[in-house]
Amino acid sequence: MRRRLLVNIGLVSVLTAPVWMPGAVSAGSNSQTSATGHVFATADGMVSTIESFIKVMDFEAAEKAALELTAHSPDYLQGWMLLGYCQSLNQKFAESNASYDKALMLGAESGAIKARMAYNHIRLGEYNEARYSYRAILELEPDDAEALRQLGYLEGKLGNHDLAADYYTRALKNDPENTEIIRALAKIEEKRGGNGAVRDLLMRNLDLHPNDTESLARLGRVYIKEKNYKAAVETLEKLVALEPTNAKGWRNLGVARYQLGDKRAACSDFQRVKDLGGDMTDLYGPLAECYYESGAGSAAVEIIKEGIQREMQVAWLYCVWGKVLEGRKSYDAAIGKFASAARMNEAPWSDYARKQIARQEKLKKRAAMISAQQGLE
Predict the structure, then answer these.
(1) Dihedral sign, CA of 91, 95, 97, 99?
(2) For residue 102, what are the domain limits?
(3) Are 5 and 135 in a shared domain?
(4) The Cα angle at residue 273 between residues 350 and 190, in degrees rounded to 5
(5) What is the spatial distance between Cα 23 and Cα 271, in angstroms, rounded to a whole number?
(6) 320 domain residue, yes or no
(7) pLDDT score, position 188
């Protein structure tokens, strides 16, 4: 299969090193002096100058020289190819496609040019035009894996998930170990609601690349959705071992452990998220609860105060605070916290809080009776 100039366009990356068309024809025999200050004997000499500019990443000078070349030799195919490439490097995507159109008129190989033009269309947000270019490539090469992959990307971008899945599946048949295609198809299947298909694709990718952290993270999330928390823990433990600063990984690992009832481990995971500056939305309640159930009442209260200040899971936090105070036998204070939770009418915690108020009253009376009995003794 022909190697393409464009690599990973669909996810939109950059052009790789130039691949020039062979068989360039010399245009003129007299030495010329370019406005860039370089002397060249032929059009081929000017090509070398342009390629030198590109090599040192002086794309503006390269484009300027390519413009001079096409002006000097307007029928020189390679000049227009170079100009289109330089203009794309300088993010002049519309101008680049105009140059590529000129190259097509001069007989450039259609598939290669269409791929380059599709890249420019994507950068311009012209997804329909990019689709036409890739479909033109498939008319020439029906099994072109790169064109199929890019069409999968474009159909997904346009919300045509069934078509995207079809293109990615066809691309995968031609390139079965391509991580990017497997990941992309998994994302499309997720949008189509196929958790089983997503899981199978991610596991397939991990068989090929066991340390692919993106696949580990996504597979962990799939397992959580499926309530397969044990598998989620096993998967996410691998992820955080490879990426110890991955706050989202620690967050999901904590969620899975919390659901398994391993509150001490979940507490450590949620605290790691906090220490890493990760997203604490919906974590203050379970973190405070985990601290409380691990016997760390003071740490729980600190988290409770912070969560209340941030207005996150407030009813839950007041309930945990009430339980901490109950453990300290401060029943009146506990009643006050549960009353605050009850007033919020947040299910299920407000109902829980109302029951706890009655319970605290009983505990308070019992404590008073015990104290009175001890006083009589």
Answers:
(1) negative
(2) 1-16+32-169
(3) yes
(4) 85
(5) 64
(6) no
(7) 95
Helices (H), the chain: 43-55, 59-72, 77-89, 93-105, 110-123, 127-140, 145-157, 161-174, 179-191, 195-208, 213-225, 229-242, 247-259, 263-275, 284-293, 297-309, 314-327, 331-343, 349-376
Same domain? 7 vs 134: yes
Buried b (16+ CB within 10 A) or exposed e, 278-292: bebeebbbbbbbbbb
Does 89 share its domain with 163? yes
Closest CA relative to residue 80, chosen from 125, 25, 147: 25
Helices (H), 106-242: 110-123, 127-140, 145-157, 161-174, 179-191, 195-208, 213-225, 229-242
Residues 165 and 141 in one domain: yes
Instruction: Retrieve residue 259's tokens.
Output: 């659901």
Tens of pLDDT, residue by residue over 293-338, are: 999 999 999 999 999 999 999 999 999 999 999 999 999 999 999 9
pLDDT in tens, 236-266: 999 999 999 999 999 999 999 999 999 999 9
Counting residues of the chain whose pLDDT is more than 90, the rounded percentage is 75
| More confidently predicted of 141 and 34 | 141
Q: Where among 146, 169, 192 does a domain terminate?
A: 169
CATH of the domain at 73: 1.25.40.10
**DSSP summary character for residue 141:** -
Distances (CA, A) of 220 to 181, 186, 228, 309, 328: 20, 13, 9, 31, 39
